[in-house]
Structures are given as C-alpha cells and as structure tokens.
C-alpha cells in the first residue's frame, strides 16, 4: 500500500520559504521513490467535494438514452476536443469493459455547448472547482517542481498558459462491475498499465479501490484511499522535459477488492497539459539536470509538441504491455487498449520509463 502525502497549503507567511523547501524535498522523494503523491491542504471544502462527486455520480448514472445527445461521434474524432460524454461499453477500445466518461474542457471551442440538465444550474460552481485545481493546486505543484529543477517557477507555469491547450480538461469517469467472464478476459484490468501523457493528472481520491501504481521495486501496489485528498500522477510530458529525472507514473485500474467488486467506481480526474504547440524538449536551463547528467533528450530522434504526442498516443505510441505480472494469452485475453497500434516500433522513450524496473 502506498501513501506518500504532500500538504500543499500554508498560511504561515513567515515560514513559507522553509516550508516550501521541505515540501519540495517531499515532492522529489515521493515522485522519484513512490511514483505519485497524495495531496491534502487543497482547500476544497468537504461540502464542495461531496457536491462535485454528486455531480459526477449523477452524470455517470444517467439513463443511456438520456445520454445520447451528449455523446461524441464514435470514430474519426478527437474525443478530448469537446465537452462531451462518450459511452464506451460497445466500442473497439474497451470491448466488454463498461467504461464511461464525460469531459469538461478548460477551453471549449464550442460556445453553446449543451450539458445534461442536472448540471446546467451548477456549471459555474463546477468551473470554479476546475479552475481552483488548475490555478491553485497545479500551480503549487509546478512551484515545487521548479524548486527541484532549480528553475524559475514562472518558466514552468508559462508552459500551461490559459486557453492554449485544446485538450486540458476535467473528466468524470466510471468503471462498471464486470462479470467473472469479462474479468477473466481482461486479465482483471479495467485499464492496463500505462503512463498519462500530459503534465500532472489530478484525481479526486475515489472510495472504490482499483488504482495500482508500479512501484520502483517493480511491484504493482494499491494506492491507499484517503478521503478528501487528491491523488497526483506524473505525466510523460514532464518526464520528457526533465530528461527522465522524474519518471512518469505507471498506473492501472484493476478489479476492486471483493467487498467492492460490485460497485460502480466513479471519479473526477483533472488533466493538466502543456500548450498545444509547446515542444516537449528538455529543460536545458535546469542546473540540476546538468549536474545529474539528465540533460540528454530521452528520444533523440523526435521532439513532439503536446498536440502531436496526443495524436501519437492515440495510435499506440508508448503503449507497451507493462502488466508483466498478468501474463497474456493472445488466444484468450482481450487487449483493446493496444489494438490498432501503429507505433509499436517506437519504444525508445518507453525504454527510459521501464529501465528502472529491469
Ligand atoms: Fe491514466
């Protein structure tokens, strides 16, 4: 069980500098040793938190027919490009898995977006929480990362300029219980092991346990549920920018423990992503990367922009099978996560992620 905790909030101005140094150390140790952090002190009240989870629950339990007007087109569309719901239970992506999500973009290109009726009266409140996660919690994470890299915080924060990412979003998501047959077909995996491709992924800690993280010891470990805390994963964009000093969090969603196996697992996820046209090259100005010899690009052959790496990920880039503890029989098991990979040969960056576990 993993439980690194980072308390990001402080009002003690006199001690702020010392506290930030301490937090930066915790940040470094948590992400390099445990692979993620649990954040408290985020200043989202319990009342607001519960209300947001109610919105999420209500959206994820909508009647499938009522959901239809908010679904995206199934194919040929960037699912993250709209404020949209998309049921996935009959898609190629998930086959027998019942996964659903509802994206809420920070920068929606469609001004008159229609939303489920139960959300409409509360859109301002939802937006306020989204912006808090982005402009407060995430900003503090960037400040700590900047301290670790010995770089100006403004330089890191500037990579996430408001309005410059077309995919930055918060997402309601649900995983429905599976039949024993579907569980066996999926190797007990709702979502196979992977790394998110953005900067930070910030998750409202869900009461149904299913999240596991690949620990540096090479073992997948459960993430402890701590009520009213945020779970933060490190994304591949930041791994590229930090030359692999920080490795992206390899995580997966598995069948919940027996006493929760029949529950719908819902959660709120906020994905921070650099500007669409931002080149994910190394932070050359970081003295610490130079001193530690982490000043070489992980993939010398290609530098993707944020928008490009999203497209590459959608087609299989960096999607190797990392669930080594759940052997796959190609004649029996489904693996829709990697179906249609066109970048299977492009594994150089992934190699940098996995070498720590070799
Ligand atoms: Fe993920």
UniProtKB/TrEMBL annotation:
Domain of life: Eukaryota
All residue ranges annotated as the Isopenicillin N synthase-like Fe(2+) 2OG dioxygenase domain in the record: 188-273
InterPro entries from the UniProt entry: IPNS-like_FE2OG_OXY (IPR044861), IPNS-like_sf (IPR027443), Iron_ascorbate_oxido_reductase (IPR050231)
Gene3D superfamilies given in the database record: B-lactam Antibiotic, Isopenicillin N Synthase, Chain (2.60.120.330)
Protein name, per record: Isopenicillin N synthase-like Fe(2+) 2OG dioxygenase domain-containing protein
Family listed: Belongs to the iron/ascorbate-dependent oxidoreductase family.
Organism taxonomic ancestry: Eukaryota, Fungi, Dikarya, Ascomycota, Pezizomycotina
Species assigned in the record: Clonostachys solani
């Amino acid at each position: 069980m993993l439980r690194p905790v980072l308390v990001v909030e402080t009002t003690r101005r006199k001690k702020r500098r010392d506290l930030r140094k301490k937090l930066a150390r915790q940040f470094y140790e948590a992400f390099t040793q445990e692979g993620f952090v649990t954040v408290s002190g985020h200043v989202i009240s319990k009342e607001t938190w519960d209300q947001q989870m109610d919105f999420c629950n209500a959206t994820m339990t909508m009647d499938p027919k009522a959901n239809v007007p908010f679904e995206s087109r199934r194919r040929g569309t960037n699912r993250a490009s709209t404020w949209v719901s998309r049921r996935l239970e009959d898609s190629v992506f998930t086959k027998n898995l019942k996964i659903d999500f509802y994206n809420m973009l920070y920068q929606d290109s469609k001004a008159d977006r229609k939303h489920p009726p139960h959300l409409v009266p509360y859109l301002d409140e939802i937006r306020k929480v989204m912006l808090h996660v982005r402009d407060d919690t995430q900003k503090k994470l960037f400040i700590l990362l900047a301290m670790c890299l010995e770089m100006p915080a403004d330089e890191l924060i500037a990579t996430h300029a408001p309005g410059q990412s077309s995919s930055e979003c918060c997402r309601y998501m649900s995983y429905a219980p599976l039949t024993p047959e579907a569980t066996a077909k999926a190797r007990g995996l709702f979502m196979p092991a992977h790394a998110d491709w953005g900067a930070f992924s910030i998750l409202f800690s869900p009461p149904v346990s299913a999240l596991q993280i690949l620990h540096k010891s090479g073992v997948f470990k459960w993430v402890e549920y701590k009520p009213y805390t945020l779970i933060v994963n490190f994304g591949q964009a930041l791994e590229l920018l930090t030359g692999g000093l920080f490795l992206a969090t390899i995580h997966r969603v598995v069948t919940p423990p027996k006493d929760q196996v029949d529950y719908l697992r819902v959660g709120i996820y906020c994905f921070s992503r650099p500007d669409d046209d931002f080149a994910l090259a190394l932070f050359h100005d970081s003295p610490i990367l130079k001193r530690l010899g982490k000043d070489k690009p992980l993939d010398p052959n290609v530098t993707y922009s944020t928008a490009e790496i999203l497209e590459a990920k959608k087609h299989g880039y960096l999607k190797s099978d990392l669930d080594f503890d759940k052997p796959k029989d190609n004649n029996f098991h489904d693996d829709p996560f990697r179906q249609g990979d066109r970048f299977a040969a492009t594994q150089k960056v992934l190699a940098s992620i996995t070498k720590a576990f070799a």
